[in-house]
Amino acid sequence: MELKERFLKYVSFDTQSDENSSTFPSTEKQWVLLRYLKEEMTQMGLADVTIDQYGYVMGTLPASPGFEEKPAIGFISHVDTSPDMSGKNINPKIIENYDGKDICLNENLWMKTEDFPELAKLAGHTIIHTDGTTLLGADDKAGVAEIMTAVEWLLNHPEVKHGPIKIGFTPDEEIGRGVDFFDVKKFGAQFAYTMDGGFEGELEYENFNAASAKIHIQGRNIHPGSAKNKMINALQAGMDLHQLLPVEQRPEFTAHYEGFFHLIGFGGTVEEADMHYIIRDHDRKLFEQKKSLIKAAVELINKKYGREIITLELKDQYYNMREQVEPHPELIDKAIEAMKTAGVKPLIQPIRGGTDGSRLSYMGLPCPNLFTGGANFHGKFEYVSYTTMERAVQVIIELAKLWGK
Q1: What are the start and end residues of each CATH 3.30.70.360 domain in the chain?
Q2: Of 72, 156, 305, 370, whose CB has the highest number of CB atoms within 10 Å?
Q3: What are the residue boundaries of the Peptidase M20 dimerisation domain, all occurrences included (predicted)?
Q4: How confident is the model over 252-269, as pLDDT tens digits?
Q5: 107 and 100 in contact (C-beta within 8 Å)?
Q6: Which fold, 209-318?
Q7: What pTM was computed for the model?
């Protein structure tokens, strides 16, 4: 199947995950694409194709004869799309030979270069974008399509020699559960790459250290006419807490290696309220300092009110993969060489987020992240450069060759 046809087929599946679900995968609809991939891999001729009780799909492209002892390399992508916006009834639009100018998504909505200046760099590319009513699903169905297309090419070109290649597709990455039950030993790769990046050339082996801070505030609601010295306004206490955190360490004021506190949820009443932060920093020491700061802020508010009105649930989510990847410089060196051979300029930068690869790296599978060609993920302005997708396929093929030498 041709890459474009495959990608458009995959995005036609609604695979939105649900962070409020207690099942794994979190939504039944993810199973539909996962089972489809399992069947496609089987029909393609891959070996050891399985789908387990958690929805993980795995398969093997056997080594070329005589290359069985080469390192087994894996390629991994996730099938779910973000809960942030609907992934149902996606209506992709295709622009051939894009002119680098504003893109009309629908009669009421344009994607403008003044808002997204990187679009101008894609002049001449084929662009696939949304119709402005859903997300596209390039995160990460572009990665899934690229892996499958590269593997199919290798199957059809046995003259290209390579070692064992492992393929894995996961659910629920968008809600942070993507590898909760991933069996690294069963997968059987020594090293792997997640195909889950964005712009052409991205090669990422540094990501945030991440924590979640869930805060519950127990107030005391008294009629405002007789509230003096009695009322404890949970909403006000929450605002007081938020003001104790440094303004300059909010996401809208940070970039590159700078970490942040991000308030992603705040709601309730005078009587009771809840807040939810995510805490991020590339530097482990600064990460720990941020956690200490939010603990101190909670303690200070409790002291102000003379009682424990605020409780904090602080939980680490994942860590910077750099310390797990750096002992294996060949992972990065080969990725750089593969990109250059494919005519791609490597762009090494930190991930201002996380991937399945960050957790897999701490599970014993060092796993940098490679570009897929997508941008503006999780919303109606999402698009992908199909031209870049084709180059990503070539990078996978070149990596297969390099690891087989």
Answers
A1: 209-318
A2: 370
A3: 205-306
A4: 999 999 999 999 999 999
A5: no
A6: Alpha-Beta Plaits (3.30.70)
A7: 0.88
